[in-house]
Predict the structure.
Amino acid sequence: MARTTKPRATASRAARPRRVDLLVATQKGAFVLRSDRARRAWSVQGPHFLGTETNHLVLDPRDGKTLLLAAVTGHLGPTVFRSTDGGKHWAEATQPPAFPKTPGGGDGPVVKRTFFLAPGHVSQPGVWWAGTVPHALFRSPDGGAHWELVRGFSQTLDGLTRQKPDSFGETPGGAITHSVLIDPQDAKHLYVSLSTGGFFETRDGGRSWRPMNQGVLADFLPEKYPEFGQDPHCVVLSPANPDRLYQQNHCGVYRLDRPGERWDRIGENLPTRVGDIGFPVVAHPRDPDTVWVFPMDGTAVWPRTSPGGKPAVFRSRNGGRTWTRQAKGFPPSQGWFTVFRQAMKSDTRDPVGLYLGTTAGEIWASKDEGASWRRVAEHLPRVLALEVVER
Amino acid sequence: MTSATNVKVYVSTHVRSYTQGQSEIEAEGHTLAELMTDLERRYPGLRFRVIDEQDRIRPHMNFFVGGELVRDLAHPIAPGDDVHILGALSGG
């Protein structure tokens, strides 16, 4: 029998899993954690922009080489740095996010930091979106070189602020516009979250917006279920079903299935002793029913550390009806982790890898969908955000 | 209008990434605002890091003109004035 011969090298290359890079944004600069193909060995590269508060470092998945980095320092104003060669060379945005000058200057708003960077829809190469502190949304048409205020968004907030002046308060980190989500099914359909202010939708590319917060608690306001004013900490679209959204809010974990408009508090199914307070939420890349959260203590004076000093991820495989504790590898006690809203992400490998960064400068990784965890970096500055790149 | 005043400008480490590492540079202008416009022309990007979009000096940057702490961009620049652009004692 004739033997068929495969070009071994080609077959081998095709089957080889991709390496994972973690883009680590910290209080004092950016780092890259680079893994081997097995996601077993990790090395730290950097720091980049040492001393710069780096709120987000994001690679454009549309071209695989444009990187944007949101930067501010203790002294200097905020800006965005750009690389078009995967990080070899950097240049500053020609026109960073900034409010239009108020006639006469004076008391006009000032961007304090760019907090969230989002590459635009796949049909709009070069378009990026940015959420800032204080609340504002900016759009760049040219890969982050020039940024323009999305006036329709600001006008919506101005109108609602006149209705209810206390609905867009500040967190300790300011009034944060974040979780800029672009519906892959429709380039004009976006969601944006405000901490505080609530969750908003546009269907016309940003000209008009409306709040969508039915069912979401705001226990820090006299009106517990207002139309807007809630405090979403992190909202994600399911990559497997962009009509499903998960939200980790200041007041619980929620799920929304569009075209529905009422959020369902799935966090009530978490153990009572753990609660459903936290910052990040992560959706599985292929299974819309699988979601992870990292609960933190929201009792009494809100320590926002792992409940009882026992860090654990909680995973649901049924859209939040039931949850499973995943703590293998984490400290069994005296582990007082705080993980910020942008500091927990997944890769798309099978099994899925999960990653989280702590305010104590540690990076933890799981390569088995959260079943077990291992610390892969320590002694970094406070971790503000992670992004995953697969090469 | 008289010809613009050319002065020495001393900058702290915070902005030397814009001045090619130089601590001492030159710029001209009748006022601090004009001086900053000239500096932006010579060193693109510098101005926005130290002056915000509402034309206010950023809170943790200090400007000294002729040894005097100044927070008003309309402040005049006189011949012989040294200008210092310095990071304030802040941060953490």
Q: What stands out?
A: The helical segments of chain B are 32-42, 46-50. The mean pLDDT of chain B is 93. The interface with chain A takes residues 14-15, 44-45, 48-56, 58, 60-61, 87-88, 90-92 of chain B (CB under 8 Å).
